[in-house]
Amino acid sequence: MQVDLRFFDSLGSQPLGRLAELTMSELNGDPAVEIAGIASSQTAGAGALCYVEGPPKQASLVSSQAAACFVSRDGAGRLPKGVIALINARPRWAHGQAAQALFRLKEWTSCEGPEAALHETTRLAPGAVVCRGAVIGAGTVIGPNSVIGPGVQIGQHCRIGANVSIRNALIGNHVSVLSGGRIGESGFGVSDGPDGAEDVPQWGRVILQDHVLIGANSCVDRGALSDTVIGERTKIDNLCQIAHNVVLGRNVLMASFGGISGSVEVGDGTIMGGRVGIADHVVVGAGAKLAASAGIFRDIPAGEAWGGTPGRPLRQFLRETSWLQQQAMKGRSDKS
Amino acid sequence: MQVDLRFFDSLGSQPLGRLAELTMSELNGDPAVEIAGIASSQTAGAGALCYVEGPPKQASLVSSQAAACFVSRDGAGRLPKGVIALINARPRWAHGQAAQALFRLKEWTSCEGPEAALHETTRLAPGAVVCRGAVIGAGTVIGPNSVIGPGVQIGQHCRIGANVSIRNALIGNHVSVLSGGRIGESGFGVSDGPDGAEDVPQWGRVILQDHVLIGANSCVDRGALSDTVIGERTKIDNLCQIAHNVVLGRNVLMASFGGISGSVEVGDGTIMGGRVGIADHVVVGAGAKLAASAGIFRDIPAGEAWGGTPGRPLRQFLRETSWLQQQAMKGRSDKS
Amino acid sequence: MQVDLRFFDSLGSQPLGRLAELTMSELNGDPAVEIAGIASSQTAGAGALCYVEGPPKQASLVSSQAAACFVSRDGAGRLPKGVIALINARPRWAHGQAAQALFRLKEWTSCEGPEAALHETTRLAPGAVVCRGAVIGAGTVIGPNSVIGPGVQIGQHCRIGANVSIRNALIGNHVSVLSGGRIGESGFGVSDGPDGAEDVPQWGRVILQDHVLIGANSCVDRGALSDTVIGERTKIDNLCQIAHNVVLGRNVLMASFGGISGSVEVGDGTIMGGRVGIADHVVVGAGAKLAASAGIFRDIPAGEAWGGTPGRPLRQFLRETSWLQQQAMKGRSDKS
User: Fold this and answer.
1) C210 vs C116: CA distance, rounded Å
2) Mean of pLDDT values over C7-11
3) Which subunits sit against B, judged by 3+ Cβ pairs under 8 A?
4) pLDDT tens by residue, chain B, 336 residues
5) CB atoms within 10 A of CB A334
6) Cα(A212)–Cα(B125) distance, rounded to whole angstroms?
7) Which of A26, B91, C97, C106 has its CA 20 to 30 A from that of C195?
8) Which residue of B123, B216, B253 is in closest CB contact with C185?
9) Is residue A37 part of a domain?
10) Does residue C150 sit within a domain?
């Protein structure tokens, strides 16, 4: 991953020694090595700084291209050869601190850089605010009192409603965001820092492909160290939540109050009833059908219908529900 | 239904031949017949264009006043006499396409027509945007950075909070919409078009009767081919969702995260705990009590208390819950 | 409780006789007694007007410092000595009516009083509206088209996103409110008035302590007759609802769609998965863990893990789920 400089300012590179000092980490390598990039542990490219948490063996899965990695003392010895260890009891927190010494989110008020580029047929309603560096295509309408953040790219013939905010996002053509939609806000990441709960900075983007619909007051968070992606023609109802790093396929339909936790993948053509929740890192196969109110905590094969909480195959859920009803009724009869 | 020209522009009538061509439909009738109106299949008045989906026998229920109807090949022969068939494998999609050749939603930026009419005692906070054709009554306050769409009618002594958006709506007196409320956005309708999922245009309105309260960040969608109606003194908490065509009675109370799916009817005085969901087309009788977290998938008689997901009479739900707890505990004792 | 005059205007004191007349109550005491304050029944200080509902014996728990109390006929005789009874069949409704004769919420448009006080390093984005009497500290950024209501106090180095609204609130340092957050709106209180459902006015505040995070489109309602308090470093995800009078401790983590009903208390370090709901007046001990989708209807001891709806200890919930699955499967085998 490259931090997208349309959305973040680079603060320049930092020597590892400085980053170790800043994060109170023990450095097992050359303090003069300059770090200019950040990444997740498994996707880290040449020169990037990452972190790894969990059991020590996780450290062996870190990309061998990474320049350095925050890691617990137990895991340090298992890092791939050539990856410098920054030993810290709180690797995720330390990485967030170091990353903030390298990059800084462009504020809603930071309008340095080129003016927004609007096509002559772009229409801005009264009160719409477009920050510098934003690009908006032909025939797109930005509704009243909506806000397009610095560097945001919006394609052609999009409809952005009223009181919408969009930041850290790349948006295709014919996309609709209904009023109150929140695109590109910080994902919910919390680390256990030395002073208590600490916000983990989020460095990714949101990508909405062509013909996507985002309903009123729905939220699509930007990725942490990758992107959140909504595939072509996927349609999301009001008051839904799409967390960081989620990848939804094409033609996915999600009814109201759908909640997709971090790093979930959903295949093309999946249909979700209202109030479906999916736990983090779950993979849902293409064409799955998730019944209203389902709470999904495990992977679902393509094409299957699931329901209930915790989610199970829909037929099983209905059988259990029906069996329970009969038994409880019988139990009552036996007593009376 | 008449499409309300305060909220939509008429593009003039179209001959059936043109609409058949546009939607790639087979026309079983006079191509010169002019169509100027749209409707749902069962309420279509004279001259209106409708559609019907589902089993072929549904076609026999189409209003005999309809001028023409998009219908599957199987259903075409069952249309009432005099209703011209437009044969299409995707009737709902085709109707949406044809309707968009007849009418066009007034954009947030389309401010042609008369200036907004404000009473001398109407107060607009800083940043409030009122589009042309809107009418706002005496003593009503529009909060900062809120948006009142073209043609919206708001009565007297209403309180509209901050960052609210209202469109395609008729609002009575003494109505409150708390900050972030979204009134009149497009209902969630998706058809299966030739290129994949397609938004179904929504032609109805929202009607909020006197003394209604809509909580912060709650959404009330406009109807598809009818109106969404919230009855007098009905009170809706924060973060609720009311879908298209819903009709709520008077003095209905709905706690946070309530979700009412399309075309549901709820009788007067019904009380819903938090996070109650109701599936589409369900009818809830007057004075029902729905326990927190209930997921209702079938009609509920007046006055009954229901709970659980899928919803069942509350006593039955509690009995099942309690019986399951006892049995599972006993099962464990038997093993140990 | 003192009504905070930064957020409400005082209309002066009123004699009890006038308040009895206004609310159609029967007065058992001196009509000339002047009332200038309101409170809840158990916290009422000298001279305050309160109300009590429920079984008659509740009246005996009213603070003996209260000047007067709306009460049902049955409860009137049980009020502490010296507390004057205002007998009314609808005490809560009557109290709301009387309170509105004493105080009035400052409107979003009521900008009398001192100008907002901004530090020289406070930054307001385009379209941000700051009402009079607001105070905003050094280094704080207010995002585009956000609204800071009259009298609101915001500390240093806070980040307020786009299209946020804040009213009736005291906010510490290093607090983040993501875009679309709604702080200080009216809690959901409905009384049964003579004409039907009636909004109960809400007289309290919201207090967000240092380092709190409120996610996008989340809502924190102000208290009714006390304050809603979110403790230091507590982190709340998108689309959550915190109702009136709730007190959350420090370092509480709440994932998306969390819903905390009125007057709930949650201890330090409690962690809630997505879509957790807690019923009103429940007390959750410090360090509890509530599984995703849990619906909690009773108090939870410190440190325990609970899940399911209705909530029960997590191990019990999982045992029941697993037992049901086995039995229903066996039941099927027996038949086939």
Assistant:
1) 22
2) 97
3) A, C
4) 799 999 999 999 999 999 999 999 999 999 999 999 999 999 999 999 999 999 999 999 999 999 999 999 999 999 999 999 999 999 999 999 999 999 999 999 865 556 788 999 999 999 999 999 999 999 999 999 999 999 999 999 999 999 999 999 999 999 999 999 999 999 999 999 999 999 999 999 999 999 999 999 999 999 999 999 999 999 999 999 999 999 999 999 999 999 999 999 999 999 999 999 999 999 999 999 999 999 999 999 999 999 999 999 999 999 999 999 999 888 665 554
5) 7
6) 34
7) C106
8) B216
9) yes
10) no
Q: Which of B95, B174, B211, B244 is catalytic?
A: B244
- Cβ–Cβ pairs < 8 A, chains A and B: 153
Structural domain contains residue C2: no
Same domain, C186 and C297: yes
Which range of residues forms the domain containing residue B101?
8-105
Beta carbons of C138 and C155 less than 8 angstroms apart:
no
Q: In terms of domains, do B192 and B300 share one?
A: yes
CATH number of the structural domain spanning residue A291: 2.160.10.10
Q: Which of A192, B106, A143 is nearest to C145 (CA)?
A: A143
Q: Of C185, C259, C297, which has the smallest distance from its Cβ to B161's Cβ?
A: C185
pTM for this predicted structure:
0.97
Same domain, C311 and C172: yes
Give the closest residue to B99 by CA, choosing from B228, B208, B235, B191: B191
Relative orientation angle of helices B314-335 and A314-335, to the nearest 10 degrees: 90
Q: What angle do CA A143, A147, A148 make, to 5 degrees?
A: 105
Residue in C163, C275, C321 closest to A277 by CB = C275
d(C-alpha C196, C-alpha C184), whole Å: 26
Query: Is residue A195 domain-shared with residue A288, that is, in the same domain?
Result: yes
Q: Give B306's strand partners.
A: B290, B313
| Final residue of a structural domain among C105, C126, C159 | C105
DSSP string of B6-65, one letter each residue: TTEEE---EEHHHHHHHTT-EEES-TT-EE-EE--TTT--TTEEEE--SSGGGGGGS-TT
User: Is the same domain home to A86 and A223?
Assistant: no
- Across the strands, what pairs with A159? A141, A176
> Is the domain of A190 the same as that of A76?
no
The residue among B105, B124, B148 that closes a domain is: B105
- Count the residues in chain C: 336
Closest Cα to residue C220, out of C211, C232, C208?
Answer: C208
* Residue C174 is a catalytic residue: no
Which pLDDT tens digit goes with each residue over A205-235? Answer: 999 999 999 999 999 999 999 999 999 999 9
Could you tell me the end-to-end alpha-carbon distance of chain A, in angstroms, rounded to an integer?
A: 67
Does one domain contain both C305 and C174?
Answer: yes
Residue A240 lies in a domain: yes
Chains B and C: how many Cβ contacts under 8 Å? Answer: 152
* 3 state DSSP class of B230: strand
CB within 8 Å: B185 and A163: no
The answer to whether residues A100 and A173 belong to one domain is no
Tell me how many domains chain B contains: 2
Chain C interface, mutation test: which of A188, A263, A327, most C Cβ atoms within 10 Å? A188
**CATH code of C94's domain:** 3.40.1390.10
> How much is the CA Rg of chain C, to the nearest whole Å?
23
What's the pLDDT score for residue C336?
42
* B79 sits in which H/E element: none
